[in-house]
Write a structure and sequence with these properties.
Order of helices and strands: HHEEHEEEE
Structural class: alpha+beta
Oligomer: single chain
Strand content: 25-35%
Strand order of the largest sheet: 1-2-6-5-4-3
Number of strands: 6
Largest sheet: 6 strands, antiparallel
Number of helices: 3
């Protein structure tokens, strides 16, 4: 199986795994965070900004609008009570020969928003991964599927307490 074929097949799994791995790598802290609602609003804003920067017309279709869970650093299978908000959209109907334009537009937009390209991007032929080190949000643009080769744009928040502070135990 070629690397390109393998990367397209694993696209959706990469988004989920990357979000969960990043969630599992959070620094444990009892400090207040933004709320889950604030984190979700930020991921939605980022998606809207990215979609607005793509060559038009583009039709974003909801792919994922939910939370991931975060785990304790010393017990990677033990939920720590924090969540990570995830917003992802498929860009249907974009001709494959135009995908390079979309990757270039995405990179320019997210870098303008303060995101930096992750080294992990070098391991994938049709995917870009970014992190905003100022606020911990992540961004990705991935070509998924073996047939249509649909583009998927996604943003995930850092781990946050659902209500902004650690709940009383």
């Amino acid at each position: 199986m070629s690397a390109v074929h393998r990367n397209r097949r694993l696209g959706p799994a990469v988004v989920v795994v990357l979000a969960l791995v990043l969630a599992g790598c959070s620094v444990e802290s009892n400090r207040p965070t933004m709320t889950r609602a604030e984190a979700k609003a930020q991921t939605e804003s980022y998606v809207a900004q990215a979609v607005g920067a793509f060559p038009q017309p583009v039709t974003p279709v909801a792919e994922r609008d939910n939370d991931g869970v975060c785990f304790k650093n010393d017990a990677p299978s033990e939920y720590d009570g924090k969540v990570t908000a995830v917003t992802a959209r498929n860009l249907t109907g974009v001709p494959v020969d135009r995908h390079p334009e979309y990757f270039a537009a995405f990179r320019a937009q997210v870098e303008a928003m303060g995101f930096k390209l992750n080294d992990a991007s070098a391991d994938f032929d049709h995917a870009l991964f970014f992190t905003n080190h100022a606020n911990g949000f992540t961004a990705s643009l991935i070509e998924i599927g073996d047939g249509q080769r649909t583009l998927n744009v996604g943003f995930a928040s850092p781990c946050v307490w659902p209500e902004g502070t650690r709940p009383a135990e």
